[in-house]
User: What shape does this take?
Amino acid sequence: MLDPAGEATRAAAARLGVDGIRKLRIGKSIELELEAPDAQVAQSQLELLSDRLLANPVIENWSLELLDGNGEQQP
Amino acid sequence: MTVGIVVFPGSNCDRDVRWALEGCVGLATRFLWHEDRDLSGLDAVVIPGGFSYGDYLRCGAIARFAPVLESLRDFAQAGGAVLGICNGFQVLTELGLLPGALTRNAKLHFLCEPTGLLVQPGLCRWLQGYAPDEQIVLPIAHGEGRYQCDPQELAALEANGQVVLRYSSNPNGSVGDVAGLTNATGNVLGLMPHPERACDPVTGRLDGLRLLASLKGLSKANQKGGC
Assistant: This one.
């Protein structure tokens, strides 16, 4: 799907002399802290939020990364 | 006959819609605050343009969860007449009453200009005052009006006659030149152009009048409103 902000940014990058960009898409990243009894519940609640509120699946793809309390990525 | 007009924090065309309906068409209206749930006594509901909840997250994404829209979903599914203009169209797609989504204009500019449209009324109850293939001009005013859906969805909408308004000269990159869509039963209409800004002779255009006057059965060409 056309990403006009990404295209405009790629054009600006070329004016800076960097014209080897094959792909530049702009999206959003959402930082979210959630209390949940375990990782599985957290995962399912986050999937619900991502699918129904944070992203519109008609026009956006989403992925989520679960971090532990120290900000480290969960295995 | 009373028409509800939804008011979100950030709506800014609610009073224009009230003026067009009351002053130009001669219908009674009632503002519906976003926390209202009671739609009793209403014959139709309009979701006006603006920036509901600041358009935070995505246009219409937060409005979709407003209590008034839970009632509106039932109202529409029971066959009630629902019109979403501009931000109202965005809200209707987020709510799932119309398919697809509205995204950032292809050239990124906010567009505020008169726009030629081709009307194909089909079953849409709001457009019965227009002739098939009639060309009209309505103002647009949006930054996120590029209609998007997948090709199969668009083909199905075309086949069902649900693409009822198309841009004559596509200003924003919408697929299929889509400017307005109706649902399968024709009672819900979402459109990016602003019919309420073309109802009063003082604005210089009257092509929107027949759309709103459809609620009253006023559907004669060049019908003069009560302005």
